[in-house]
Specification:
Oligomer: single chain
Strand content: 15-25%
Structural class: alpha/beta
Radius of gyration: 17 Å
CATH superfamily of the largest domain: HUPs
Number of strands: 10
Number of domains: 2
Largest sheet: 6 strands, mixed
Helix content: 25-40%
Shape: globular
Amino acid sequence: MLQSWSGGKDSCLTLAELRADPTRSVEALLTTVTEGYERVSMHGVRRKLLRRQAAALGLPLSVVTIPQRATNAAYESAMEAAFERFRAQGVATIAFGDLFLADVRRYREAWLARVGMTPIFPIWERDTRELAREFIDRGFQAILTCVDTRVLDPSFAGRWFDRALLADLPETVDPCGENGEFHTFVFDGPTFRESVPVVVGPTVMREAFCYCDLRAPGE
């Protein structure tokens, strides 16, 4: 199967769940990168770090490039081209790290049924407070790379995802950022062969979003 991959904590927890199931086998991580920026869409993580992360996890990375401000039709077209390549290899299942957004799940199920793919949702409806604490307690390490400043202070961009951060989150913000309040990049954890070295760079505003520019040492 494929796994829809952002490089964030929910993706890593989903992968851990799949790897714990002997009946499942992840063939590749599938992610979207925005053309021109060469960064993971929404998360703002550089493609180079994404490749290093996939290598540390021991999995191939398949990158789908989408245009800036891509329409849903453009996104679907680019992804469907990737699906076609994998279906030709006998891979027709894709895992998502969605937690509780029912409308998103319905959309994925309807869309993928039309194109011959089967979605699965390994961590669906897990309690997000418990899941956030489990992520930390299991030894995963992540940094907030993007913050929606309409719901969360920009100062959270660049912070470690740890118990202190959870304590500081407003009650209105989901602990896993499932409503898009924030996004993360995971650089170490129990499913990693080795840690991914990262340097925390400056933050930059793009419309309502504050991004922390992570980079590899020496860049």
